[in-house]
Amino acid sequence: MGTTTNESKPYGTVLIKAKDILDFLLATTDPPTLSDISRGLHASKPTILKILGTLESLGFVWRDTTTKQYFLGTQFVPYAQKAIATFNIVRVARPYLEDLRDKTQETINLGIVRDNKMILVEKLESPTSIKLQSTIGGSMNMYSSAMGKAVLATYDAKELQAYFKSHKLTPMTPHTITTPTKLQQDLKTIQELGVAIDNEENEEEVYCLGAALQKNGELYGAFSISTPKYRLPKERRAAFVRLLLDTRHAIENTL
């Protein structure tokens, strides 16, 4: 006869409800009232009010006595500063990227944006004998790489136009997209699919699948699977897309 355990369940129902309230305050455009929070979380006003009272006493929220609206408290500022100072996307993503490398047996790259370039901060080599040109610390164009295009697909119209104004789309190979119109069409497809493709656009005979890493409107970087094109038939490519999306979901849930 089986037994049930609570080992996998989070401890502290009130803590979970408090986080739901804080998440609600973070997500709303206009500071909410008690009624707004109660309605938005489908919870009773007395319960929400008790938790808000505790959060307010701790400095995690504050209430405007005139408008009755609630705001996130400044107590979060030092926490945020500490989190940013100690955050390392490589450390967070590496276990998931190692798993992706082992499942695909191909090279996995992790990059961040610096000065409108993708800077490679981690590279997990394929166990095969073929080595690709990229090196940790090296840079690549955003418009010609899978990671870069995945990031560009997160830009709004103003950011994208600023990028086009400051960057000439110089061909890296005969397959590089070199006009803003065609690149914008490609970015639209990336937005729909969640996956960016570099089909010999950055390096001949190399095919890459990339995805951006973002959460709560914050962009953390991007990662990609890189492989010689001859090793990626249609069926294997479809499997890689699923693995890429699963890995992105796992990393973003950890952020």
Automatic annotation (TrEMBL):
Q: Which PROSITE patterns match?
A: HTH_ICLR, ICLR_ED
Recorded GO molecular functions are:
DNA binding; DNA-binding transcription factor activity
Q: Which InterPro entries match?
A: GAF-like_dom_sf, HTH_MetabolicPath_Reg, Tscrpt_reg_IclR_C, Tscrpt_reg_IclR_N, WH-like_DNA-bd_sf, WH_DNA-bd_sf
Keyword set includes Transcription: yes
- One Gene Ontology biological process: negative regulation of DNA-templated transcription
Q: Which SMART domains would you find in this protein's record?
A: HTH_ICLR (SM00346)
Name of a matching Pfam family? HTH_IclR
All copies of the IclR-ED domain together span: 75-255
HTH iclR-type domain residues are: 12-74
Alphabetic keyword roster: DNA-binding, Transcription, Transcription regulation
Annotated protein name in UniProt = HTH-type transcriptional regulator yiaJ
The root-end lineage is: Bacteria, Bacillati, Bacillota, Bacilli, Lactobacillales
